[in-house]
Amino acid sequence: MNTFSVTKWDEHVASGEATGQRVAVVHAAMTYAGEFEGESTGDYLLYYPGAGDDGGSTTSPGFERFDGTLAGRRGTFLVRHEWSFDPVGIRSAFEVVAGSGTGELAGLTGTGNVHGVLGEPTVSYAFDHRIG
Fold first, then answer.
1. Which SUPFAM superfamilies match (predicted)?
2. Of 13, 43, 57, 85, which one has the fewest beta carbons inside 10 Å?
3. pLDDT values of the chain reduced to their tens digit, one per residue, 132 residues
4. Is 114 within 8 Å of 124 (Cβ atoms)?
5. Of 102, 98, 41, 96, which Cα lies nearest the Cα of 73?
6. In the chain, what is the greatest distance between 2 CA atoms, to the nearest angstrom?
7. Nearest to 63 by CA among 43, 88, 38
């Protein structure tokens, strides 16, 4: 099973009010297990249309940098996310940023998705990729 856990979540309101409509900036760190083994850091721009932690029907962009092994090959790569979230869970569709693979992951392409339930210790991901 492909999973990750969040090891750091640093969120700050960039504009708007903390108790109402706002845009927040997040810097996060994750640890991955499964097909990808390693660490990542991500930077996200989240939109909240009102009070609370519900993103409504909007999506929020972000980039995540991976460092580890994928299919037994070592290197780094970057993905671009489109996150959606509500009080129950999180979802993302992501794509590898063209040309971002390094080391044995040079030439990596691929897409995937993330699905998680808030409060659970791990989040599931699927990643369809090709190296070279």
1. SO1590-like
2. 57
3. 899 999 999 999 999 998 899 999 999 999 999 999 999 999 999 999 988 878 888 889 999 999 999 999 999 999 999 999 888 899 999 999 999 999 999 999 999 999 999 889 999 999 999 998
4. yes
5. 102
6. 47
7. 43
Structure-token match 């991901």, residue found: 125
Number of other CB atoms surrounding residue 1 within 10 Å: 8
Query: CA 76 to CA 116: how far, in whole Å?
Result: 24
3-state secondary structure the chain: CCEEEEEEEEEEEEEECCCCCEEEEEEEEEEEECCEEEEEEEEEEEEECCCCCCCCCCCEEEEEEEEEEECCEEEEEEEEEEEEECCCEEEEEEEECCCCCCHHHCCCEEEEEEEEECCCCCEEEEEEEECC
Measured distance CA(44)–CA(24) in Å, rounded: 8
* Residue 5 structure tokens: 């856990």
pTM: 0.92
